[in-house]
C-alpha cells in the first residue's frame, strides 16, 4: 500500500480543493466535509492520481461504526482513513485501507496512553498533533517503528523542515500557502 510522503494538503474548506488538486503532492486529506459531497471529492482526487485520505471522525453524517465503514468502502472508496478511534483503525485495516491513527500530545499521560493505543491497533501510520515537537516525532517513531505524519499548528516552512528532519514521513497542513513546499 502506498504511504503518503512530503506535504499532505488537508482540505477544511471546499474553496481549497482545486488548489490541492493542482499541487504535485501525492495525497489529499479530507478533514471536514458533508457525507453527500465526499464521493465526488474522492472520485476527482483519484482521477488526479492522488491518494484520497478521509478523516473518518470529521465527516458530517457518517457514524463511526461498522455500517459507516461499510458505506464508506462500498460507496466512497477512499484509499485511506484517519481517525482517533481504535475501532475505526481496526476496521480500516481489516478492509485493507491505509489506516492512519491520529493522536494528540497534550501531556505525558496522553503520550503514554497513545503509545499503548498504537501498540494495540498497529496503524499503518500515526499522525502526531501538534506536529511541532521534533523530539517527540523521533521518540514516537523509535518506540513504535510506525511511520509518523506531523500535523496540527504547522505554520512555516521551517517547521515543515524540522518535522521532516526529525523523521516524520509527511506533514499534513490545511495552510494552502505551505502546499508548494
Could you explain the architecture of this structure?
- The protein has seven helices and ten strands.
- It is α/β, with parallel strands linked by helices.
- The strands form two sheets. Strands 1-2-4-6-7-8-9-10 form an eight-stranded parallel barrel, surrounded by five helices. Strands 3-5 form a two-stranded parallel sheet.
- The relative contact order is 0.16.
Structural class: alpha/beta
Number of strands: 10
> What is the third-level CATH name, the topology?
TIM Barrel
Task: Round the Cα radius of gyration to an integer and report it.
Answer: 15 Å
The biggest beta sheet reads:
8 strands, parallel, barrel
- Could you give me the name of the CATH homologous superfamily? Aldolase class I
Portion in beta strands: 15-25%
Q: Give the SSE order as H and E letters.
A: EHEEHEEHEHEHEHEHE
Organism: Virgibacillus oceani
GO molecular function, one term: RNA binding
Protein name: Glycerol uptake operon antiterminator regulatory protein
Keywords: Glycerol metabolism, RNA-binding, Transcription, Transcription regulation
Concise description?
This is Glycerol uptake operon antiterminator regulatory protein. With 181 residues, the protein is of the alpha/beta class. The protein has seven helices and ten strands.
